[in-house]
Specification:
This protein is an alpha/beta fold. It is built from 8 helices and 14 strands. It has a 7-stranded mixed sheet, with helices on both faces. Strands 12-13-14 form a 3-stranded antiparallel sheet, covered by helices on one side.
């Protein structure tokens, strides 16, 4: 055992680097949330107004075309994606792509719960599967940005405009961080707790016109829970996409999301959020490049996440990573930076828009300190 090095003098001002729930927007405080809808029914006039306003802000900030509908649904991103799977799959063959834990979760749902016998295309953590293998005569399920692997699809060019199947994108760590090609996405899901830094428990479901057509012309063979029902009498329940939620939402969480969306609007919308994420990822890239003991789990820069950035640490096992993360948390220099439990041992640093670039830059010396301290204690 060697001496523990001295800690750096300057800490990140906001040491929140969790990949979900993520850092709140700069300047956030609960006192700043609009309280007029709190304690009121979500079906009251003010409740409906605020829910509809939240949806309108999401459409404006995402630059989403009028052809796509936006619904606030229960169960975070998981609930939104499972709602899409259970209501639309089974009309044709299915292909599932998995290169990290959440993609594997959708494989499990398709195989064990819906018993669809999908084609499964896999890649190891840090890698992207061969997208040219995808059969677009089938419905295709994929994560746009792999939160637990730090790997993303580079763009939408691999999705054909004349596809027969539907493109289902779990985009929870991608929405508001990338310029998404909405004409290539039939179903997208996300939660406010990622790039917007919102609260958990609520998901957002975005449906393109081909997804609506599927819902109105196909009835799955299995029973649907009430929480998943999006049609009535063969027609889409349009109210769901105007703020008339299927079950009771938290109006506090809605107001929190509105705060984040108004903050995004003050930055210029999606473009401003994307610029902040890009700057954060670039700052972390510089930190990695300057250290021979740090590396990117996603070796290919073209498919490397700019939000949930996963790093390798030379010689580290799970216990070493836990030690580093514990040291950083104890010093309040960085919270929640250990990699996902199913991923290879390493660090995961959230670089989404609610993080300030100065805090990423201040993190570098603290990573040095934690690495040296963990080695000294070994």
């Amino acid at each position: 055992m060697t001496d523990t090095p001295a800690a750096p003098a300057t800490k990140p001002a906001r040491p929140y680097f969790s990949s979900g729930p993520c850092a709140k927007p700069p300047g956030w405080s609960p006192e700043k949330l609009d309280s007029q809808s709190l304690g009121r029914s979500h079906r009251s006039k003010i409740g409906k107004v605020r829910l509809a306003y939240c949806i309108d802000l999401m459409r404006e900030m995402l630059r989403l075309p009028d052809t796509h509908r936006i619904g606030i649904v229960p169960g975070s991103d998981t609930g939104a994606f499972e709602m899409a799977m259970w209501t639309m799959l089974g009309a044709r063959g299915v292909t599932t792509l998995a290169w990290e834990s959440f993609g594997e979760g959708w494989v499990t749902d398709a195989v064990k719960q819906l018993k669809l016998d999908p084609a499964v295309i896999r890649a190891d953590y840090g890698q992207l599967p061969d997208l040219a293998q995808v059969d677009w005569s089938t419905d295709v399920l994929f994560t746009w940005n792999g939160t637990t692997s730090g790997v993303r699809v580079p763009d939408g060019d691999w999705i054909p405009a004349n596809r027969e199947g539907l493109a289902f994108a779990d985009a929870t760590s991608a929405v508001f961080a990338y310029d998404l090609p909405w004409d290539k996405i039939d179903v997208a899901t996300f939660s406010w707790q990622k790039v917007l830094g919102g609260e958990g428990a609520h998901g957002v479901l975005i449906l393109g016109p081909r997804a609506v057509e599927r819902l109105e012309n196909y009835t799955p063979a299995w029973p649907l829970p009430k929480l998943f029902r999006l049609t009535k009498g063969g027609k889409l329940v349009e109210g769901v996409f105007k703020g008339e939620t299927i079950n009771t939402p938290s109006m506090l969480a809605v107001e929190d999301a509105i705060f984040a969306l108004e903050w995004a609007k003050s930055l210029g919308g999606a473009a401003g959020l994307i610029a902040r994420s890009d700057a954060n990822a670039a700052a972390l890239d510089r930190i990695v490049a300057e250290r021979d003991w740090l590396g990117h789990l996603a070796a290919d820069e073209a498919s490397r996440s700019k939000t949930s950035v996963c790093l390798t640490v030379a010689g580290a096992d799970e216990a070493f990573i836990k030690k580093m993360a514990s040291l950083l948390e104890k010093e309040e220099a960085a919270f929640d930076v250990a990699g996902y439990r199913d991923a290879p041992p390493g660090l995961r640093i959230w670089c989404g828009a609610t993080v300030d670039t100065a805090d990423i830059e201040a993190l570098g010396p603290w990573l040095d300190w934690a690495y040296a301290s963990a080695k000294a204690a070994a």
